[in-house]
Write a structure and sequence with these properties.
This protein is α+β, with helices and mostly antiparallel strands. It contains 19 helices and 33 strands. Strands 13, 14, 15, 18, 21, 22, 29, 32 and 33 form a nine-stranded mixed β-sheet that branches. It has a six-stranded mixed β-sheet with strand order 3-2-1-4-11-12. The protein has a four-stranded parallel β-sheet with strand order 6-5-9-10, sandwiched between helices.
């Protein structure tokens, strides 16, 4: 028997999925174990292996693919555990990282409330300090003509001084290297000659885009991440090999694809938020199976709430990516995050008496108080426990006890008493506050972008999501909520539905009249490049699909959108015009009806090619239908908070493992699975579909 393993590391838990060649799926979940995350990975996989009644060593020995997404990159930025790096740039542009985009750098990435006090805002310190930046005399113009060739002795001097300063990585970002990279390549060759083991990032390879600050910031961030991520991947591979693994390690990218580990190590910045994107990709895959083309995918785990949108089966790219307010530019699917989830710490401002939820998270260690891993600050998970939702008999499959009494006592001292409320009243108020914050984010990515939630299905996943989804989903007005069978490990499941994908792009601003032959040449070169890479990785031409798109904008405007292009390999004026029409439709969908203005003219900015090598995805097992009655699965009746009634009521609790397709569960109800909990409202009914997904909809009175 051969296996595919998928592992997603979150801030609180590490999730895993094991799929055998017959399509049988086992799920695993365990606490994440920073700083050595490999321990949590093996713990999680052992849970899934036990479900298959096999040893982990046996499974790893017969594993073909190990698919992996991780928060290691973003954690290194947030925790400040980045490697020391140096930057070589064009003389006169040493201050680019400090300048950012002028005043925008003071408030980019801040909340609306924080922006209201601009005097109190500050730019973040640059990702690479001025002491580690060197300028060399060189110049290439906007047309790619080399006006001044850099002196080799000056380059060597700059490199040596940075190496002597103790840098572990070097980045090179020269002016207009995206048009002609020859000088940048030459500097790279000299670096490799002087210090072959130093991690190297060249701007024309990792960020071939217009925008000097964004390009430089991406190079700097990638350079500082490189040694950290390499150490992590090397350690993981060593641990897996010691356990008998002989297959291929593939690492998730934030554009919704996988890369072989050695390729992923060259651009670790591409791993940032790869986990949430995997959940979004998995939602699209499951949506296709269930007949849903318009999906709001909401992921609520232990650290953040994340949301992405699938529109007519397509996922949009993010236009501006940031981590801890640092900009970077890489192909990345649009996922928006909020620092609110199960581990989010709750506090009360002593001056104002106003409660605050997040963004700081307790993670897995020390974690929520009820986990008894050393946590001393009340969290959203503690509130969910106080409200009666969590059941120790089901938490992490019954392997972890919960101390709800201790959570309630600390919550009383630190939250309820300062608010002048009883513990139940304060817990219900915090629950409502958290849900309102989630709703605000969902409102921003749907209604404020011109999307009608009533035309979308809400897919909810992540270990904490099920306890909140019914409340904010009902307020959002979606017709239906889907909680996948893999809900608590859905990002890991999404990895198993992903392909190996290489993306490349070229910058060549162009206005009408179009140079069709030049556009054709650009796409031919990009297609040849990504195809050659996939062929090298063992894919046949029949297993390779190519997608093309163009970044474009209206002339003299800043808003760039990516418009998909039909797959006809021959570029024609008609094909280009059809792509522009797609752009106009996307533009109006994003910025409002009649906002498109073709008369202003169109500017083509960059040209993208996405090459995918198709990986066999698991076929979900279909289960036989039973009758609608679900009373056989009731295992408890308890006092729990019912948000719709604004009161504690007697609520039935169901064991998910006893439910079968066709069962209908009227709300209010609590459904306990081995890895997550689902709560429904009085006017909702949940039913189990043929794949053992939970479908929640408004109850229709006959």
């Amino acid at each position: 028997m051969r296996y595919v393993l998928a592992v997603d590391i979150g801030g609180t838990c590490t999730d895993s999925v094991i799929v055998d060649e017959n399509g049988r799926i086992a799920l695993g979940k365990a606490f994440s174990t920073p700083p050595d995350f490999s321990t949590g990975i093996l713990d999680s996989l052992r849970v899934a292996a036990t479900d298959m009644q096999l040893s982990l060593e046996n499974i790893l020995h017969n594993t073909q693919l190990f698919l992996h997404s991780t928060t290691v990159a973003e954690n290194a930025v947030v925790d400040g555990t980045l490697a020391h790096a140096g930057l070589i740039t064009t003389r006169g542009f040493e201050q680019t990282l400090f300048s950012t985009r002028g005043g925008y750098g003071r408030w980019s990435g801040l909340t609306e409330d924080e922006k209201r006090n601009p005097i109190d805002t500050e730019k973040l310190p640059p990702i690479i300090s001025i002491s580690h930046i060197r300028g060399v005399k060189e110049r290439t113009d906007t047309n790619g003509r080399i006006l001044y060739v850099p002196d080799e002795a000056e380059i060597e001097s700059a490199v040596q001084s940075l190496l002597e300063a103790g840098v572990e990585a070097l980045g090179v970002c020269l002016l207009w290297a995206i048009v002609n990279p020859e000088s940048e390549k030459r500097i790279g060759e000299i670096i490799r000659k002087l210090s072959p083991n130093t991690f190297l990032t060249l701007s024309h390879e990792i960020a071939p885009i217009v925008g000097e600050y964004e390009r430089t910031s991406t190079v700097a961030l990638n350079s500082r991440l490189g040694p950290v991520v390499k150490k992590y991947i090397d350690n993981l591979q060593e641990k897996l090999i010691n356990q008998g693994f002989k297959g291929s390690l593939l690492v998730a990218q934030a554009y919704g694809g996988l890369l072989p580990a050695e390729k992923a190590l060259a651009s670790p910045v591409g791993m940032i938020e790869s986990g949430p994107v995997a959940g979004l990709v998995g939602s699209r895959h499951l949506g296709n199976m269930l007949g849903h083309k318009n999906i709001i995918a909401a992921d609520m785990g232990g650290t953040t709430f994340k949301v992405g949108v699938v529109r007519e089966g397509a996922i949009e790219y993010q236009r501006e990516s940031m981590v801890l307010r640092y900009h970077y530019t890489m192909p990345k699917f649009d996922v928006v995050s909020l620092g609110l989830a199960g581990g989010s710490i709750i506090s009360v401002d002593r001056r104002t008496g106003i409660p605050q939820v997040g963004p700081k998270s307790a993670g897995s260690y020390p974690g929520p108080i009820c986990y008894e891993n050393g946590g001393e600050e009340p969290t959203v998970t503690d509130v969910d426990a106080i409200l009666g939702y969590l059941n120790p008999n089901f938490f992490l499959g019954g392997r972890k006890s919960l101390n709800i009494e201790k959570a309630a006592a600390v919550f009383k001292e630190k939250v309820a008493d300062p608010l002048g409320r009883s513990v139940p009243e304060a817990a219900a108020a915090i629950y409502r506050l958290a849900n309102s914050m989630i709703y605000d984010l969902l409102h921003k990515v749907t209604i404020q972008r011109g999307l009608d939630p009533r035309q979308f299905t809400l897919f909810s996943f992540g270990g904490t999501a099920g306890m909140h989804i019914a409340a904010y989903g009902d307020e959002l007005g979606v017709a239906q909520i889907v909680i996948p069978h893999s809900a608590s490990v859905h990002s890991a499941f999404g990895l198993t539905t992903s392909n190996i994908v290489h993306e490349d792009q070229t910058i060549k601003p162009m206005t009408e009249p179009w140079n069709i032959s030049q556009i054709q040449s650009i796409y031919d070169q990009l297609t040849e490049k990504v195809t050659a890479q996939l062929l090298k990785e063992g894919f046949s031409r029949d297993a390779i699909t190519i997608e093309r798109s163009i970044d474009m904008r209206y002339r003299r405007q800043v808003h760039i959108l990516t418009a998909p292009m039909d797959n006809n390999p021959v570029i024609t004026s008609e094909l280009l015009e059809k792509t522009i029409e797609q752009f106009a439709a996307l533009y109006e969908g994003r910025y409002g009806k009649d906002s498109a203005y073709r008369e202003a003219g169109i500017e083509l900015v960059s040209y993208r090619v996405r090459g995918a090598g198709t990986v066999k995805t698991p076929q979900l097992n279909e289960y036989d239908f039973g009758n609608s009655a679900a009373d056989h699965a009731v295992v408890d009746t308890r006092q729990a908070w019912v948000e719709k009634a604004k009161a504690f009521q007697q609520v039935k609790g169901y064991d998910f493992n006893k439910l079968v397709p066709g069962n209908r569960i009227p709300g209010p109800a609590i459904i306990w699975t081995p890895f997550t909990t689902v709560v429904t409202n009085p006017d909702q009914v949940a039913h189990v579909d043929k794949y053992k997904n939970l479908i929640i909809a408004r109850e229709v009175n006959s």
